[in-house]
Design brief:
- With 414 residues, the chain is an alpha+beta fold.
- It has helices at 17-24, 54-62, 91-96, 102-117, 136-142, 147-157, 171-186, 202-213, 293-296, 332-335, 337-340, 381-395; strands at 14-15, 42-43, 49-50, 70-72, 75-80, 83-86, 193-196, 226-229, 235-240, 243-246, 250-252, 261-274, 287-291, 302-308, 319-326, 348-359, 368-370.
- A hairpin with a 2-residue loop joins strand 5 (75-80) and strand 6.
- The longest helix is centred in the first third of the chain and has 16 residues, at 102-117.
- The chain is globular, with a radius of gyration of 22 Å.
């Protein structure tokens, strides 16, 4: 394994305050009021983990969870009409939520009960619906749900990034809502998400420690690493600083494979330093806020990710917020305004636009197994789905994540 950074992660790893300034404000001195630069960890691609989601199940399956410490995220919210509301995730939450009127609450409660009770192999729980035939739009209509309720279920619970799911079979949406609800129940917290202390840079370090136990070799800080090909054009190793490590195939992110990837979009992210909690979320130290596309008139959702000194990622009394979305115009920074306006006073922020790349082939012919770029979402579901697909392409086998994780139920159809 030859990552470009000393943390063991790739480009989307964590940067300390000194590294952040070198990247975004080269030559400028660090403001003294931020304290020690070593106390800061900024995730370049900030994402939470769902408690019963794919990444947590991978960590349990591999044993990497033993090398990490996690803290529950305080809350999950959705924006409607410019106001921030706590996301209801089950029938009891639906009745308490101020997001819906009284009659709508009971209709939503009926839908949540159906989702919670649904079991693929038990026809008694299907209520006569074939989720591989009926679309999400048709299922919502069966329960009489209004467009605003459909919006938060689809985007804040099922975590869909746009409305294309509405005219697709309802199974994926239902299982995603079920996963959200069971993630909420798994650790008995106020949200379905958890986050590692010291930030996401701990993840690659955890894998590095486990790899060392099994004799794996890590070559850190190798920004010049290049894939080596044989005469037939098939990947046969990686070279760096005059040395070459031979391999049967090479697995890497798109940056190592120019000419073998294409751009499918861009993501804009703002990294914000605050001196206060994000307003209107109950003084939470960590939070996710989703702004569905219809609330901003956009084609894709916007995500706000908040964490603080409670997660050991910044100086005491400071808070971090990240706003991200897919780029749709020639002015990406302006596109972030609906999310930035939720943050209150911002001490300082840094904006980065990243290309989202994907491989042009499956790797079976050239031995190059390439991951997809990171989307704007603030959770790991789509990322880990990509990793598991790559594993199957390489080995021809699926990973049985349930074998080592008895709590895992909902995600197995994702």
């Amino acid at each position: 394994h030859g990552p470009p950074t000393r943390s063991g992660g790739g480009g989307p790893g964590s940067l300390n305050l000194k590294q952040l300034y070198e990247k975004f404000k080269p030559g400028q001195e660090l403001p003294p009021h931020y304290g020690r630069w070593q106390d800061w960890n900024f995730d370049m691609v900030p994402k939470f983990m769902m408690g019963n989601g794919l990444l947590v199940r991978v960590l349990v399956h591999t044993g990497v969870h033993k090398y990490l410490e996690f803290k529950a995220v305080d809350g999950s919210y959705v924006v409607k009409g410019g106001k921030t509301y706590k996301v209801p995730a089950n029938d009891k939450d639906a009745l308490r939520s101020s997001l819906m009127g009284m009659f709508e609450k009971y209709r939503a409660r009926s839908f949540f009960i159906f989702v919670q009770d649904y079991e693929k192999d038990d026809p008694r729980t299907h209520k006569g619906y074939d989720l591989d035939v009926i679309t999400s739009r048709e299922l919502f209509k069966e329960y009489g749900l209004d467009p605003n309720t459909v919006d938060f279920i689809g985007h804040a619970l099922a975590l869909q990034t746009d409305d294309s799911f509405m005219d697709q079979p309802a199974r994926k949406m239902v299982m995603a809502v079920k996963l959200y609800s069971e993630s909420l129940a798994r650790f008995e917290t106020n949200s379905p998400y958890i986050y590692p202390l010291y930030g996401l840079g701990e993840l690659p370090q955890g894998f590095a420690r486990l790899s060392a136990v099994y004799g794996g070799t890590y070559m850190l800080a190798k920004p010049d690493a290049q894939v080596v090909y044989d005469e037939a054009g098939k990947a046969c190793g990686v070279s760096s600083e005059g040395e070459t490590a031979k391999a049967k195939y090479v697995v890497g992110d798109p940056s190592y494979f120019p000419g073998k990837v294409r751009r499918v979009g861009q993501v804009v992210r703002a990294i914000c330093i605050l001196s206060h909690p994000i307003p209107n979320v109950g003084d939470s130290h960590s939070v996710q806020i989703i702004i569905p596309q219809k609330q901003t008139g956009r084609q894709s959702d916007m995500y706000v990710f908040g964490c603080s000194f409670a997660h050991n990622v910044c100086a005491k009394g400071k808070y971090l917020a990240f706003v991200s979305t897919a780029v749709e115009t020639a002015n990406p920074t302006a596109e972030l305004m609906p999310g930035l306006q939720l943050l209150g006073a911002i001490d300082e922020y840094f904006v980065q636009v990243s290309d989202v790349m994907e491989p042009v082939n499956d790797g079976s012919q050239d031995g190059c197994y390439i991951s997809k770029g990171y989307d704007a979402t603030t959770h790991f579901q789509s990322t880990v789905e990509d990793v598991l697909e790559m594993y199957k392409k390489i080995t021809g086998k699926d990973v049985n994540l349930d074998a080592d994780d008895p709590a895992a139920t909902a995600g197995q159809e994702q």
